[in-house]
Write a structure and sequence with these properties.
The protein is an alpha/beta fold. The chain has 5 helices and 5 strands. Helix content is 44%, strand content 26%. Strand 1 and strand 2 (68-79) form a beta hairpin. InterPro entries: STAS_dom, STAS_dom_sf.
Length: 164
């Protein structure tokens, strides 16, 4: 697994904070202070683990529409060079023979890097060859701005997304 610069040291720091909070939670006498320290330890551990294992997944659902079915692929986390190929594969799998509309739901996408946009272009290109309409929905302002800057606007429709 390739690490983004700075991800491992930050995760290590949060793990250290969690360990200190757990250790400190053993000694204080008031029960409320132990509870506060253990909550802090749990929060620090969660931050450390999400730093180590970023969200890189997608889910898929479909509904029938006239002329085929509408497939929604919901992407999560970041789209960059590390996970672009996986996202492209997930989106292309949604392009079945009876797919009429492919909706790419980006409501949970935090960031799209320039190195992650080829995954989207590959999917849109495959969809156009199959005569499938592509809709990008719920893209945040920064995500939509990136898609606009690389020229994807010419090939997709937007739904529920702010204008760049």
């Amino acid at each position: 697994m390739r690490w983004r610069s700075g991800r491992l040291p930050v995760a290590g720091a949060w793990l250290l904070v969690a360990a200190v909070a757990v250790g400190a939670g053993v000694w204080p006498e008031p029960v409320w202070l132990k509870i506060v320290l253990l909550i802090a330890a749990a929060a620090a551990l969660r931050l450390a683990l999400t730093g180590i294992w970023p969200k890189m997944r997608s889910t898929q659902s479909s509904v029938p529409v006239p002329g085929g079915r509408r497939v929604r692929v919901r992407l999560y986390g970041e789209i960059d060079a590390v996970n672009a190929e996986r996202y492209a594969r997930d989106m292309k799998e949604a392009l079945g023979p009876d797919t009429a509309v492919l909706e790419i739901d980006m409501s949970r996408v935090d960031h799209v890097s320039r190195t992650g946009t080829p995954a989207l272009f590959d999917t849109v290109s495959a969809a156009r060859r199959a005569d499938v309409r592509v809709i990008v929905s719920h893209a945040s302002q920064p995500v939509r701005t990136m898609l606009h800057s690389v020229g994807l606007d010419r090939f997709v429709e937007y739904n529920g997304s702010p204008l760049p």
